Every structure is written in C-alpha cells, then in structure tokens.
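ARCHIVE CARD
Drawer: 12
Card no.: 0347
Subject: one protein chain, sequence and derived structure
Cross-reference: see card 0346
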Amino acid sequence: MCSDKVVVIGAGVVGLTIALEAQARGLDVCVVERDAPAAGASAGNAGAFAFSDILPLASPRIIRQAPRWLLDPLGPLSVPPRYALKITPWMLRFWRASRAARVAASTEAQTALMAHSTATLTPFLTRQKLAHMLQKRGQLQVYEGEKEFRASLPGWDARKAAGIAFRHVKGDEIAEIQPGLDARFTHASFTPDWCSITDPRDYTLALADAFRAAGGKIIIAQATRLTATGIETSAGPLTGRIVLAAGAHSHLLARTAGARIPLETERGYNTTLPADAFELKTQVTFGGHGFVITSLTSGIRVGGAVELGGLNLPPNYARADAMLKKAKRFLPGLNIEGGKQWMGFRPSLPDSLPALGPLARQPNTICAFGHGHLGLTQSTGTAAIIADMLEGRPAQIDLAAFSPQRFTRAS
C-alpha cells in the first residue's frame, strides 16, 4: 500500500503530468486511478496544445448561437432532453459567465495560464525525454464566407493583444496551406505556432511509464471519500496531501469534503480513420460546426462538438456520424471508411477555467480539474502550479480566478 506523502487522484494527462513534476522536485508521490492510465478523455482528444484558445466557451457569441445549435440534436452544442432539467443550474451559471465583464476577466486569466503552459511545455518534455513526440504543423480555422469571418475578428484581436501569431488568408492562399477543402470556405486564419502531440493516448501512457520508471506507483482502485488525513479507496485508506485530478469525476469526490463545485461533462465524440484517409498538412478547425480534423500516428481523427449529458447516459454515436458526414462534404477527398468511434468525458466548469487550489474545508486536498477541452494544453502549466503549491512556493500567475471557492461567491 502506498504510504507516500502526495497522492494524485487520476492517471489522465493532467494527473500524470502533476505526478511527474512533483516527483522531479523530490516529493514522494503515488497515483490512484479508477480504471487505467489514459482510459478517459486523455486518450481520445485531438492531441493539440491549443495555446491560442484563450477565449472562454461562455461568451456572448456562444449565447447568440446556442438557441440555433440546441435545436439540432446532432449539432455543435446539444443537451439530451432527459438531462435538460438537471443541467439547468449549470446553464444559468454559464449564462452569467457570458457577460462582457466576466468574459474579459476569464480571458485574462486564461491567457496567463496559457502563457505559463507554453513556457513549461518544452522543459517538461525535455526532462521526460518525450520531446520527440511534439510536432508543429500549425492550425487552420476556416470560415464559410465574409460574414462568418468578420464575426471571428474580435477573437483574433484578443489573440493579437496576447501576442499570439496568426495570419488571415483567403482563396488560393487557403489551398496552399491545406489542399482539398471545399470552395465554400472562402476565408481562414492560420496559427503557425500551433503544435500537437503525435498521439494523445501514446503520450499519456509514456507519462505513466516515465513515472513508474522513476519509482512512482500507480494504484488501480476507486477513490471513495476525502478525509482530513488523506483519502479512502477500494484498496484501503491512503494518508497524505491529495491532488484531485480525476477529470469529470472530480466533483463527486470534492462533495465528500463538503465542496459543491458545478462541474459538468462535455461529452466529446470522434472517429479515427486510417492514416491514409486524407493527406492532412495541418489541423483544420471548422469552428462554425464545432469540430476539427487532425493527423495523429493512430490515424486521421475527426471529432469535437459539445454534448452536455453527464456521466451516465449511453453514448449517442449519431453525433460522431454527423461530424464524419460533414467532414466528407468539407473535404471531398476524405475516405470515411474503416473508422473507429469514441466518446469521452471532458470536465467543464461554467466559466471555462479550471479549479486550481485547496478546498476550503479540507485544505490538504488541492484541486486540479475542470480544464474542459484544454486538459492536454494546460497540463504542464497546471503541474508547475500544483507542484509550487505542494512545495509552499508562491504562484507564478494570479490564481484568484481559478479558486475552487469562486462558485460559492455571489454572482
């Protein structure tokens, strides 16, 4: 049984990155995982380090688009009817977080975390001898016409203010970056510094291997209840400081310590096609349709969208089918045969910011969850922040906006 001083709950990309960072600083660490490393969203994401995604999902733009999207059960944003009543309080918080002042504050906080994550990524990969898994192929966001492109410009202004490099292109310039797109995409924005991992599942498993190779232990057990001295699990009690990085299941454990954190589940879908399905030169984002297509060593992945449906409803793979059919229309040369479907849970908080910091009633538990679709992107920045907390060091960024207690304050 693990008697280490730091117990990380969760062996996804965030939990394992934290465990490795703490271990590298000389702390005694073990990891508790309910299933297996890379068993959840860490395996099925698009593999991108999306450092330019500084804009929160909660925004006036999404509020304007949401009614139209919600009318389409297979569209970019959906709520299954039988889950609608349960998610109403979360949606009200999301709506409040979409006010202009709140969006500005969330963008500022997100920008700081993105900058910290950018700065920590290469040093972390180098220490773990995983730099060979990083690839820089850029990202192309495409727009169907002048109107959709113009609507995107305020977001690009915010990125420009944050120092993010990009350029707007149209016509033949789009085809030079990514041949084979349908002519309906008349405008695009290219972020050349966008980078990704060769395959998110392989990367997360490599993190687990590196942790074990350095003497770390991963215990397969169900964490059941936080305590004043540690945590109870199906394999027995563990004592020590707890780092709660259990993704979409984290709020259930936080509740055992009296903390009610409004975490919801963005159920993401994708289809991974054979590697020769299309010659993809960059990641392509179809923002108006809520999905991306990206090239991984495991194949061509078509995925995204948001289904706010909790943890227990059965998957609706018609959503993956709908994205694949659109991808075929948008990339006529795409071969959509032989794909493998997947659904996973992204842990999402209403203001699009993760919860980073100790629980008020149980300060020996530090939260590190709620990254939404940015878990991989923000993993090294989060790990550095949490390791600083464990060592009693001052934070490198202002963490007020990420406090787990922010949801108990008046909105």
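Annotation on reverse: The chain has a mean pLDDT of 94. DSSP finds eleven helices and 21 strands in the chain.
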